Amino acid sequence: MSESVISPPAAKKGRPLSFDRERALHQAMLLFWRHGYESTSLNDLTTTIGVKPSSIYTVFKDKKSLFLESVELYTSGPVTAQTIINDAPTAFDAAQGLLHASAIGFTGKDTPAGCLLATSAISCSEASSDVQSHLASIRLGIEQQLREKIKQSIKQGHLRKTADASALAAHTMAVIQGLSTLARDGATRAKLLKVSDMAMQAWAVHTSGDASASGSTA
């Protein structure tokens, strides 16, 4: 269901919050993660969080703002795509790290299966094209960071000069999207990790001898 059409009430100054904002945001994130953006209604949110619609509007403005903040929470933390890419010694290690982190993150015991970004994007209609564009920009940003890492590895001799940075980065992102779908279909973590390892074989023909000598495994 789409967002309920209700005009936000005027905020009352000085009125204390009747709920834990951070806990509410976390619950909303899990709900969006499980059902997607458009399929999560305002009623679903208020029921799960245990607050009135007026409280949602007062604290988060509207459903879209709550969703975008949920996405920010989802993509934050001590280990993110950016930190995995930046901290990896080579592009091979970065791609492998992204795939393994995805396989683990998509099969958590206390979280919904799959990727929140993928689930929400698939369920978006033309009416929510701005939300879909925002999610796409996040994924494209990760792809661009990985592409630059690949170019760097080519210059450093970890990958052959014939390696296609754009294709390798896009391939990695496509596999991550596929892992999300498999997880939603009930695939186990072990299966996703095997798929991740197999996907890295596509990098083998592009890995130079220097990279193998430095400790990267193709």
CATH homolog superfamily of the largest domain: Tetracycline Repressor, domain 2
- What is the general shape? elongated
Q: Helix count, per DSSP? A: 11
Question: Structural class of the secondary elements?
Answer: mainly alpha
N-to-C span: 46 Å
SSE order: HHHHHHHHHHH
- Count all strands and give the number: 0
Strand content: under 5%
CATH class of the largest domain reads: Mainly Alpha
Write down the overall mean pLDDT: 87
Main pleated sheet: none
CATH topology (fold) name of the largest domain: Tetracycline Repressor, domain 2
Helix content: 55-70%
Number of individual domains:
2
CATH architecture label of the largest domain? Orthogonal Bundle
Spans where pLDDT lies below 50 across 5 or more residues: 1-14, 210-218
Summarize the structure.
The protein is mainly α. The chain folds into two domains: 21-74, Homeodomain-like (Arc Repressor Mutant, subunit A, Orthogonal Bundle), CATH 1.10.10; 81-208, Tetracycline Repressor, domain 2.
Name its key features.
elongated; Tetracycline Repressor, domain 2; 218 residues; single chain; mainly alpha; Arc Repressor Mutant, subunit A; 0% strand
3D architecture notes:
The protein is mainly α and 218 residues long. The chain folds into 2 domains: 21-74, Arc Repressor Mutant, subunit A (Orthogonal Bundle); 81-208, Tetracycline Repressor, domain 2 (Orthogonal Bundle). It is built from 11 helices and no strands.
